Amino acid sequence: MFVSFLISVYNSDSAQIPLLISCVLTTLIGIFPMIFVPPTAQISHKEGYVIVVASWILVCFFGMLPYAFWGGEFTMVNSWFESVAGFTTTGSTILNDIEALPNGLLFWRSSTHWLGGIGIVLFVLVIVPALGKARMSLSRLEMSPLAKTNFHYKTNKTLRIVILVYFGLTIAETILLYAFGMSLFDAVTHTFGTVATGGFSTKNASIGHYNSVAIEIVIIIFMFLAGMHFGVLYTIFTFKKVKWYKSSIVRIYTILIVLGIIFVTFNTWGKNYETFPEALRYAAFQVVSISTTTGYGTTDTTLWPPFSIMILIYFTFQCACAGSTAGGIKVDRLVIFFQSLKRQVVKLQHPQAVIPVRIDGNPVDDETVDS
C-alpha cells in the first residue's frame, strides 16, 4: 500500500490522501496486537484455522480502504467487492471506466491480486501442511508427485521455492512486456495480473488496448506457466535434472489447451476472422486466459459461434494444474476422477482386484482420492 502511495505522490494524482490515510490506519491497527497481545509459544490447529480465515477477512477490509476513501464509483459495497475480487484473484470488477482511476489506485488494485496469488499458494503448500497430518488431504491434492520430490513438506524450503518462482516470473515478464512496448507502470501491473492469474488490467479494453502480437505472446506464455504447479516450475527454473515434461499432468494440461486452441481457431476462422493467423491469435489468447482463470481479453468472445463459447465454458471448469494460483477443478483432480471411475467399473467385474490410482506413475492414496 505504501508503494502505491509513493506512485500516487510521484504522479501527483488524486489518490494521495486516500492511500496515505489507509496506510496510517493499517499500520496503527497492525501495530496494536504486536504491542499489547503477548506472543504464543504454540498455536493449536483450531487457532491456526481461525487466524488464517480472520486474516483473509481483515486483509480484504484494509484493502478496501483506499477505494472507499477515494470515492467515485466506489461505494462501501463496491469497495469491498473490488478488494475481495483482488485478493482472491477472482478478477471481477464493478468499474465502468477503469482508466478514470489515478495511477496510485490502479497500482494498489493490481497489487491486491498479486499479493492474493502468493497468499493462496502459501496457504495450500505451506500453512495447511504445517497444521498437521490430519489436515494434509487438501495439501496432497495440490501436490503432484514431481513436485513432492522438491517440496518434501519442509516449510522453509517450500517457502523459498514459492518466492523464487513467483518473483522470478514477475521480474521476467515485466522486463519482456517493457521491452515490447508497454510503459513500465503497465508492464508491472499487467504482470501482477498474469502471474497471479487474476486479470486486473489498467485499460478498459484489457490487453486488446495494445493491439500487439508480441505483448500477447508474452502474456500467453506466462499465463500458461502460471497455471502450472509451482514445484514443477521450480525444477525448470533451477535446471534440475528432472524430466518435468514427462509429467502426465503437464502433458494433459498442455494437450487440452492446444486442442482448445485448434477447435476455436477453426471454428472462428472465416466467421469472425478472415485469415487463419488472426483466428489463431485470438483463439490462443482467449483459451489460455480462460483455462488459467486469468481473464484478460483481446476480443469480444460473445460474438463467437456457440461451439467456441462452449469450449471456453468447459475451460472455466477444467482450468490449470493444482498447486498454482489458478482456480477451478484443476487437471489433477480430473485425472484422479476418471482413473477412479475406471477403477470402479473394472471392480464391478473383478471385485477382488487391487487397482491403484496413479499420477506420473506414482500411486495416489485412497484418502486423497476420496477427498
Strand content: under 5%
In order across it, which strands form the biggest sheet? 1-2
Helix content: 55-70%
- Catalogue the unreliable spans: 133-139, 141-147, 149-153
Succession of helices and strands = HHHHHHHHHHHHHHHEEH
Shape category: globular
How many DSSP helices?
16
Average pLDDT number: 84
Main sheet makeup = 2 strands, antiparallel
Cα end-to-end separation: 38 Å
- How many DSSP-defined strands? 2
* Broad structural category: mainly alpha
Quaternary organisation of the protein chains: single chain
Rg, rounded, reads 22 Å
Topology of this protein?
Layout: H1 2-11, H2 16-36, H3 45-70, H4 76-87, H5 103-130, H6 136-141, H7 145-151, H8 155-179, H9 184-195, H10 213-226, H11 230-237, H12 248-268, H13 276-291, H14 306-318, H15 331-349, E1 357-359, E2 362-364, H16 366-370
Antiparallel strand pairs: 1-2
Helix pairs in contact: 1-2, 1-5, 2-3, 3-4, 3-5, 4-5, 5-8, 5-9, 7-11, 8-9, 8-10, 8-11, 10-13, 12-13, 12-14, 13-14
